Amino acid sequence: MNKLLKKIFALTGALILVLALAAPAYAADAGTAVAAAEEAVDNTVGLKAIAAGVCIGIAAAGGAIAMGMSTSKAAEGIARQPEAEGKIRTSLMLGLVFIETAIIYALLAVILIIFVL
What we know:
Elements: H1 2-26, H2 30-39, H3 44-80, H4 85-115
Helix pairs in contact: 3-4
């Protein structure tokens, strides 16, 4: 599990680094900012898309990792104690529901980012 956490932290750090390096691409000097304001161009659409993509991507990746780990641990538990299969499977399904609920909340946050903000 220690290796998995290191990989997750490395990927998260790389994602933050890429976003930080890409931020100047969205910056504009004063002349273009005034011109854009005069033309009433909405530049927030691209930033909303990036925020939505990052949000749902992190949620989906975290949910997939959590579901895989819980399923593998449940399979190991059933293999060690076949007589406890019913209780292990019930706990597994309940845990998977909670993990999926967290992903759905992230989807709702993405919908709010796109349509409300």
